[in-house]
Amino acid sequence: MIDRFNIAADILNLEESIRQKLQRPEKQIVVNFAITLDNGTIQNFEGYRVIHNTALGPSKGGIRYDTGVNLDEVKALAAWMTWKSAVTGIPFGGAKGGIICDPRTLSKTELEKITRAYTKALADIFGPEKDVPAPDMGTGPDEMGWLMDEFSLVHGKTIHAVVTGKHLHSGGSLGRVEATGRGVSIISILALQKLKIRPARATAAIQGFGNVGLHSALFLFEKGLKIVAVSDVSEAFYNPDGLNIPELILYYNLNNKSIKGYRRIHQINKRLEDILEKGFDTVFRVAAKYDVTPRIAAYIIALKKVAETQSVKEVAADSPKYKQN
């Protein structure tokens, strides 16, 4: 993040004092707590919340649950939230949070305990006018609802606005679940139009088939794009004639949120290189844990359009795209 920030700062000719201010978060909090698991054992967890900048308003940013969460990653993601809010004119600052855990191995009861313990530890940090969390990788409406409820219990009254991404019955917004996938798809449709590529004649590959990738695939499918490749952490599939996205989504939902075992089309290696070598008009990188290596970057810059929702990558991999532009 710092290297990419410095590239932008050089272009803007920012003063050194401003650079130093923007490179450092306002607050970084580490919390440790323990919960009793369903089997009766006690397990400790570590969580983070980083407030990067509040110059434009309350800090805003998601909370992720993943085994790879660490303080450096959370700091970088919080900074990206600052930039995204600022360049789009949204009156919020940037923040990010996370807990080191594997939500796939935890029961719903255990996830609720983790969320409530994390919320209680940060009850003085969160607030509608201070810091507003949201869903991220590994979290969703359930976690946001538990957070809101626990925060409200601590403060003695119901406070809906402490968090976004809640269920509708808890004061959430219609369309929030599919918002990220829909947003990146709309932008890419506009980019294709600018490049004079008709959506009905375009092909797309989607790397990552979680909440974002799933809704991106469905939106693009409905707009007429031919989705010829999809991958998740388990497998990748390719069909030059196009995939049946509604059918794949149904399989995904019935298969514990995984496309593994979907055998109706040709299976290829899950590496991004193998997918990109097939050749597409647009590539959606919405997976959580794929790094962009220089080799992959070489494939990407040969494409007409790339849509990305993950921002923290190696600058060495990003530089070919930067130089070409």
Structure in a nutshell:
This protein is α/β, with parallel strands linked by helices and 325 residues long. It has helices at 2-12, 16-23, 71-87, 108-121, 141-155, 179-194, 211-222, 245-254, 272-276, 294-300, 315-324; strands at 27-36, 42-53, 59-66, 93-100, 131-135, 203-207, 226-231, 236-238, 266-268, 282-285, 305-308.
Task: Write a structural description.
The chain has 325 residues and is α/β, with parallel strands linked by helices. Helix content is 38%, strand content 21%. It is built from eleven helices and eleven strands. The protein has helices spanning 2-12, 16-23, 71-87, 108-121, 141-155, 179-194, 211-222, 245-254, 272-276, 294-300, 315-324, and strands spanning 27-36, 42-53, 59-66, 93-100, 131-135, 203-207, 226-231, 236-238, 266-268, 282-285, 305-308. Strands 9-8-7-6-10-11 form a six-stranded mixed sheet. α4 (108-121) crosses α5, α6 crosses α7 and α10 runs parallel beside α11 (315-324). The two termini are 19 Å apart. Belongs to the Glu/Leu/Phe/Val dehydrogenases family.
Write the layout of secondary structure elements.
Layout: H1 2-12, H2 16-23, E1 27-36, E2 42-53, E3 59-66, H3 71-87, E4 93-100, H4 108-121, E5 131-135, H5 141-155, H6 179-194, E6 203-207, H7 211-222, E7 226-231, E8 236-238, H8 245-254, E9 266-268, H9 272-276, E10 282-285, H10 294-300, E11 305-308, H11 315-324
Parallel strand pairs: 3-4, 3-5, 6-7, 6-10, 10-11
Antiparallel strand pairs: 1-2, 2-4, 7-8, 8-9
